[in-house]
Amino acid sequence: MPRDVITPADEKIITAAIQEAEQKTSGEIRVHVESNCDKDVLDRATEIFAELHMHQTEQRNGVLFYIALEDHQFAVLGDAGINATVHDHFWEDITAEVIKHFKQQKYAEGLACGIRMAGQQLQAHFPYDRHTDTNELSDDVSFGE
């Protein structure tokens, strides 16, 4: 079960990283954790992206970190707005950094690091505007089976 691996303390670390990143950008970051992924990891991440309504942000600048723990699958997925602005290896760089931590079973630390990396790019392309920005999506970690 994902909640056996991602503890409440881990959730706090992850949520704090999301909140820290989102204080500097209009972008939205979510984390979804489940046990298994029975299809291509990017296809499953795309399904979760839609289920979490991440495509409905005003600037199409949502980023999803998807993890299937038992199957050792990970993907980071960005919406059209962010994909149009980041460099070609942006997602691969984040994935490599996160997986480096995952291999040491440091899931919260890996996710927090990846979230900060995404936040830096989001800040560069989608800076926070205190007059117009709202938190469009939950910062909480979502869990599947």
TrEMBL record:
InterPro entries: TPM_dom. It comes from the Bacteria. Residues 4-120 form the TPM domain. Pfam families: TPM_phosphatase (PF04536). This is TLP18.3, Psb32 and MOLO-1 founding protein of phosphatase. It comes from Pontibacter chinhatensis.
